[in-house]
Amino acid sequence: MTKRSLLKWLNIQKEKALRAADDEHDKVYANRKAAIYLRLGLKEVADEIQEHMTKAAKVWDAWKKLPEVKESLDTTYNYSSHPDYMFNNYTGQEDRAYKKLTIDVLRLDSKELEQLAKNQKIEWEKIRDTYNNVIMVTEGMATAKEAATYLTSLGFDLTEIDNPPAPVTALAIQIDPHYLFIKKAEKAA
Predict the structure, then answer these.
(1) Are 91 and 53 in contact (CB under 8 A)?
(2) How far, in Å, CA of 50 to CA of 44, rounded?
(3) For residue 63, is pLDDT > 90?
(4) So what's the pLDDT on residue 103?
(5) pLDDT at 137
(6) What is the mean pLDDT of residues 33-60?
(7) Nearest 5°: phi and psi at 102?
């Protein structure tokens, strides 16, 4: 184990810790958001909208199939405001209207969510800064052994560095070396 390998490993651990913090925040944020929507009764409203849109889609489809409509009306213009597009966004799957509303339409203006986002940013910065400090201290150590002792005292498990996974030796993709070094075409005689 070298100091360089320890520092490389620490940087990887920092990125993992930051990703884990982001993932955890995303879960908490999504749960809080869902709780707010539940408190506001959005699910019931979305279910009712979906029911009405499903009925409207059936009326629209029946009308479009009438022979005189088929022959005399082009219903393919301006797709984004087209009734087929609108109905498809709110019908066809369970909770489709709820998902459409919560993902694409509504934006919550919630002090609770703002505070969660601020707290997440603060936590993320603290994790980053703490890892940067540990990396800086580790860089300043005289030997890899001293650095390893320091990292172990902080609670890091260095067995991954001592026993790295075996390298993959099998070829994942067959390579035709003929195409690696293309020879110049022979001059025509």
Answers:
(1) yes
(2) 10
(3) no
(4) 81
(5) 96
(6) 91
(7) -75, -25
Query: pLDDT tens for residues 112-149?
Result: 899 999 999 999 999 999 999 999 999 999 999 999 99
Vertex 180 angle, CA 175 and 181, to 5°: 145
- The pLDDT of 74-86, averaged and rounded, is 67
Q: How many residues does the chain have?
A: 189
Number of neighbouring beta carbons within 10 Å of residue 107: 7
**Residue 38 neighbours by CB under 8 Å, 6+ apart:** none
Please give the model's pTM, rounded to 2 decimal places.
0.65
Say if residues 136 and 56 touch (Cβ distance below 8 Å).
Answer: no
Looking at residue 117, its amino acid is A
Reading the block at residue 89, the tokens are: 């966004």
Query: What are the residue ranges of helices labelled H in the chain?
Result: 3-40, 42-64, 67-72, 83-90, 96-100, 111-140, 144-153, 159-162
**Beta-carbon count within 10 A of 153 CB:** 8
**Whole-Å CA distances, 106 to 4, 101, 102, 110, 176:** 49, 6, 5, 12, 53
Specify the residue for token string 């799957």: 93
Residue 78 has pLDDT above 90, yes or no: no
Sorted by where each begins, the domain ranges of the chain are 3-161
Query: Is residue 156 within 8 Å of residue 12, measured between CB atoms?
Result: no
Residue 162 to residue 66: CA distance in whole angstroms: 75
